């Protein structure tokens, strides 16, 4: 496999393989010196056309722990602002001898376009509303470890709540959860669902109360305040009333139910409860697992299969 | 007077097929018969000799966007596609809302001499949808088709006024059907594919609402209406119904709307971004049916050149549009599943009537007719390549596609503008 642009591209086998590899990376991260020489001599460029401090830091930490050289290309300091085309930017940076681009862009599909212009591996760190495959991988890894589901998600019921329509996280999570065997329910008003769900392995309900007592995982999506201006929901108050996780609803969750969120949270909107008071909150664990998952992805795409054991010296 | 003879071909026009040679002198057909020869003989062995094609929908980009296309390069591409007349869309910079721009585009067309360039006029000033353009002044200067193409006229009152005012000017209003409030930010067809790709959708209903509105305004005002680039099954049905009622409605469809679907965008390649967008299989089938049964009057290319760097922008930022002039005939022969006479009707005499040039284009191949003629091999299979295009731009979505049917010679006003596939000017 050369690129990671979507969950579909990975396939169920690739998904399982990466989750197993992540176990190994998590073990490295627990060492006193969490660094191995696996990607020594490889160069990974973070190409972030949209701000995302957390995802970028997570990828860069992952690359450094594998001893890859890292560079950051952020748009505010680049010649893109001087009118350089996307293709020229890629070809210029690629000419420096790059092994992988980690790409975040506000437009869906940019990782596909870039992969036509360079020989380097492309890792999608989030494109528009489309996909965010490493988020889905870390979500799967988090569920897998927290619920001890190394064999897969058969019999698990996962609800994804909120703005599915504009969510790249949902567009990756749905396919990843389903590929591992989970039953997936989307919870959203019609205005926040994609125009068609034909072919999606999901059920749909239109109120959080329909799932809150039943699910093993409650996955809350960020509700962006600017959606108010597009007549997608009447008010944040009404959104919270129908789709928010309130203290009353938190009481009704099953004891083992995990609560997840890709961040950043909107306190008082979708998360109308303090997550630190939720026993099942995985929100911090998701961030921790992000590094190990991204190490696994980089190693899978760029590694020669060795160098995970030793010292980076 | 020197004469040119098209030799060894089969004439195909409204009357059917006939094996005959055609002699042309002084821009006019002077003899149709067997075993003719002239000062110049053009071999048409195995070829169809038909009236030249008329494209109701071409973006020539000049003035304003000469890096994409000029009147000269666009009309050369047209000639290579077998066209002898093309209607130039008004969305130039400045747009076709004043006599000076109209006259400039027409003059540039005459200077290029590859085909007749017919400037369309704007319905509203600046295509802004707020105030009527000088319809009578432009009509008096010979403009026949008026449109704000690229934009639909959103205001129903303004559209009604344009139809009422234009009714007695002998003009035809042509609508780009898109209720823009429903397509804000839209990038591709709204359906399963855009849902998966996470790309904002352009719902079919945004086109259909305006088709319906303008059919009713045509009924109300008694003015004719032409629908540009129909793309949805329901739009085709609405036009079929309007025609059955005897309303003065005509319509065109573009080759990409009967050959490609929204699935083409699954690799996020902006070459497949076009407005209105590529739709679904059922829409493609409906457009084909409409072209076969006479609901849709014309194949019009919506030839929309863009320089390469603009098609290398992110999908949501790249401009919509694709080339069409040099592939229209082949795609029609290869994909439509209608007989050759119907293909030529859709490319030639039917659009000629809508454009108001039936006195000189799309006429039967007979003595006395102006020599605007396309000669094409309907059986030749070839592969579309960006390298061979006469257009200044390269944004064809068909590169690498094998198609059947190729223009061999084009004669405009008696002059061979294309011989053996190569432009002569």
Write a brief caption for the model.
The complex is a heterodimer of chains A (313) and B (425). Chain A is of the alpha/beta class.
CATH topology descriptor of the largest domain in chain A: Rossmann fold
Q: Helix segment count of chain B?
A: 11
Write down how many β-strands of chain A occur, each being a DSSP E stretch of 2 or more residues: 9
Percent range for β-strand residues of chain B:
15-25%
Give the helix/strand class of chain A.
alpha/beta
CATH architecture assignment of chain B? Alpha-Beta Barrel
The largest pleated sheet of chain A is described as: 5 strands, parallel
Helix content of chain A: 25-40%
Number of helices of chain A: 9
Portion of residues within helices of chain B:
25-40%
Q: What's the CATH H-level homologous superfamily of the largest domain in chain A?
A: Aspartate/ornithine carbamoyltransferase
Q: Report the CATH superfamily of chain B.
A: Metal-dependent hydrolases
What layout of secondary structure does this protein have?
The complex is a heterodimer of chains A (313) and B (425).
Chain A: H1 7-29, E1 43-48, H2 53-65, E2 69-74, H3 86-94, E3 100-105, H4 110-115, E4 121-127, H5 133-146, E5 157-161, H6 168-179, E6 183-187, E7 203-205, E8 217-220, H7 236-243, H8 247-252, E9 258-260, H9 283-302
Parallel strand pairs in A: 1-2, 1-3, 3-4, 5-6, 5-8, 6-7, 8-9
Helix pairs in contact in A: 1-5, 1-6, 1-9, 2-9, 5-6, 5-9
Chain B: E1 3-7, E2 10-13, E3 16-19, E4 21-25, E5 28-33, E6 40-43, E7 48-51, E8 53-58, H1 71-80, E9 83-88, H2 99-112, E10 116-119, H3 135-140, E11 145-146, H4 156-166, E12 172-175, E13 188-189, H5 192-197, E14 201-202, H6 204-221, E15 225-227, H7 233-244, E16 249-253, H8 281-293, E17 298-299, H9 328-335, H10 340-347, H11 349-355, E18 373-383, E19 402-412, E20 415-419, E21 422-423
Parallel strand pairs in B: 1-6, 2-7, 8-9, 9-10, 11-12, 12-15, 13-14, 15-16, 16-17
Antiparallel strand pairs in B: 1-4, 2-3, 4-5, 7-18, 18-19, 19-20, 20-21
Helix pairs in contact in B: 1-2, 4-6, 6-7, 7-8, 10-11
